[in-house]
Amino acid sequence: MIAALAILLGPQGKVWAAGQWASPSPESALSIPKAQLMQPEELNHLLITRGAQKPLLLDVGFRMLFDESHIPGSEFVGPAARSDGLSALRDRVQPLKRSTFIVIYCGCCPWSHCPNMGPAYHLLQSMGFTHVKALYLPENFEVDWIDKGYLTERGQ
To answer: Which tens digits make up the pLDDT trace of 87-123?
Structure first.
């Protein structure tokens, strides 16, 4: 899993495009710094550990997928690739302290193609949030979370 990320992200977070290393666009999940990625096993462990600081979990993906299954305690915000999803995210976090521990996730498709994670992460950064993690789901939510037996809630 880490090796796959290293192949996708080259030196200093660059991606291979058009025969050269380039910076990924802010819309790409690949633009999120590796240090801000949270592995699924790390989040699951945090959620089941008593006394651990629990993050605000925000699903920045699609309603249909959230309704099928999601991480318990997470809140649906909406697809951050759309302006209404970004507005909902902004409205949800606006009153929070900028030091709030936030984990965003989507899992709609492979990480390198996700349209929602990059915009959500960069919006939170631009608002001054300092403790934001992006749940790294290389394939999708089903493969990298549900199939591993991690905590899941179905329906609303």
So the answer is: 999 999 999 999 999 999 999 999 999 999 999 999 9
Query: Among all chains, which residue has been given the structure tokens 């949270």?
Result: 38
Q: Using a CB cutoff of 8 Å and minimum separation of 24, what contacts does 9-15 make? A: 9/34
- Residue 142: other Cβ atoms inside 10 A: 15
**pLDDT tens across 125-155, in order?**
999 999 999 999 999 999 999 999 999 998 7
If phi over 0 gives left and psi between -120 and 50 gives alpha, with beta otherwise, what is residue 73? left
**Ordered domains of the chain (ranges, CATH):** 25-146 (3.40.250.10)
Estimate to the nearest angstrom the gap between the alpha carbon of 72 and the chain centroid. Answer: 15
Integer Cα distance of 121 and 144 in angstroms: 20
Q: In the predicted model, what is the mean pLDDT of residues 52-61?
A: 96
Q: How many helices (H) and strands (E) does the chain have?
A: 6, 7
Q: Which two tokens stand for residue 42?
A: 């790390």
